[in-house]
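Form P-L/3: holo structure prediction, ligand zinc ion.
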Amino acid sequence: MSQKGSRQEKTSSHSTELYTEVPSTCLPIVYSPDYNITFMGFEKLHPFDAGKWGKVIRFLKEEQLITDGNIVAAREAAEEDLLVVHTRRYLNKLKWSIVVATITEIPPLLFLPNFLVQRKVLRPLRTQTGGTIMAGKLAIDRGWAINVGGGFHHCSSDKGGGFCAYADITLAIKFLFERVEGVSKATIIDLDAHQGNGHERDFLDDNRVYIMDAYNRYIYPGDGYAKRAIKRKVELDWGTEDPEYLQKVELHVEGALNEMRPDIVVYNAGTDILDGDPLGGLAISPQGIIKRDEIIFKAARGRQIPILMVTSGGYQKRTARIIADSIINLNNQGLVDCDCAAREAGPSHVPLMMSQSVSAGT
Ligand SMILES: [Zn+2]
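OUTPUT (holo model):
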């Protein structure tokens, strides 16, 4: 199902490190150890597992789905890359620790000199942002791509919030529109528990982008202005469970893709819909999350529409295991082709032993 060969790159406005050629032996799974935020115990002050990205990779390696050598190393988005969407005014504001403390919801950051905030918090987020942009191009080339981080859907060109400092989804789409021939329409399917007001504000009144958003209607951000950008709004109640949720997701993703056929689907696969999440307020099981991801990949890949997945919110201790299990399930279902790429890598690579069943996340 993968589409071989890059499409022609359009003449670009600035030269970027994020669109360099990737060897065909690499899987379109993007990650860097630099994603993980760990320093001086501050990460414990935010109600999240700030090392979840590295754990997803560890689990995928344990299952022999990937190796260090066959995934794509994310690069940090440079200032020029960020300026494709962000205003200089906004990027300058991030030079104030208090602004970053507010955006990331880690109050003690305000006491740190900005060079440390840049190095320990913003650089990881910029690397994840670079990863989403890279994965966008890979999705077009290969038919699918997964950035193990990213999904900062509360950030727009001029405003961050809710842990989101850079608008990686908007950036990935704008890069594709500007640089890749034949990509002029995108659909965002945002299934994080929160409303994706960042990309919604960025694409208000932009008919090239179709947004479907399913979220808990009672929680942050409740951005009524941004909601005008949503073509398919699925507002959920407290404690929504698997049957209702999965039925709505399937109905609306099919509807969305039938209504407009995009050149790329950007899937914001937040796992804060998980039962017990302190922020999401929904009650979806690990199996429900795995099924949800399968539904979205089936809908996109069945129509041969390239899909880019980012992992977004969800930071419980068991979240990383569920994300890894979901990627394993996608591979078992033939919706991503991890084993194909390994075979192409040649005889020096040991054939992968794929586990046939999804190991339980709980
Ligand atoms: Zn969220």
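COMMENT: The chain is about 40% helix and 10% strand.
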